[in-house]
Amino acid sequence: MTKPRVAIHKFSSCDGCQLAFLNAGAALLELAQLVDLVHFAEAGAVQPDAAVDIAFVEGSITTAHEIERIQNIRANSKYLVTIGACATSGGIQALRNGKMQGADWIASVYASPQFISSLDTSTAIAQHVKVDYELWGCPVTSRQVLQLLRDLLFAVRPKVNADPLCLDCKRAGNVCVLVTRGEPCMGPVTRTGCGALCPQFGRACYACFGPSELVNGHALGQRLSGLGLTSADVAKRFLFINAGAEAYAEAAAFTEHKHD
Question: For the whole prediction, is pTM greater than 0.90?
Fold first, then answer.
């Protein structure tokens, strides 16, 4: 039987989420026996226009050419899965959205801005084409991508966990850094997936994995303000990595407006 065809595409990003495949080690070798990796530039296979069963997409849309590319990928894919904060919410680069005109920020970053062609915004893949599944994280983990891939291969409906990170801390017996140490932890509004890595080592969560299923941003914003953070600092906590996530953007706007 013909093996399912899989492609892994990169847009504007740091490549970190693609490493979730490469870092899988022996599991990647097992995966290669189940599928044909027809496009994965970091692993050597280059067929960007190939028709595939499953396309994984890393990175946000920041250029006009990327809009054309993602539309072509969508047309050639049975399933399209976005991986990582950039692909699911615009990523860190979405901090520029609405803050200044493209020409202004380009000139402030690049020595020769005349050679840079970019949109004014950094947007999620889902704002341009239909996305079948989203894997949040900065970066995503090998466990996430391999589990979803296996689910699709064996006709199992993938379960994407959107529980708050606090549940992971409870299960692991981690001491709450927000309650006991007064650390401005984003765990109550962040989805699980990383294994509560930062709280496990006594550090506050940075909201790398995006909004949990239920986000009470107003309440957490008030709690963080009570720790001494300014309204601007609270807003930055929500917008730092997933600035394009609607729930975080709304919480940040509420906090800033309340203290104007």
Answer: yes
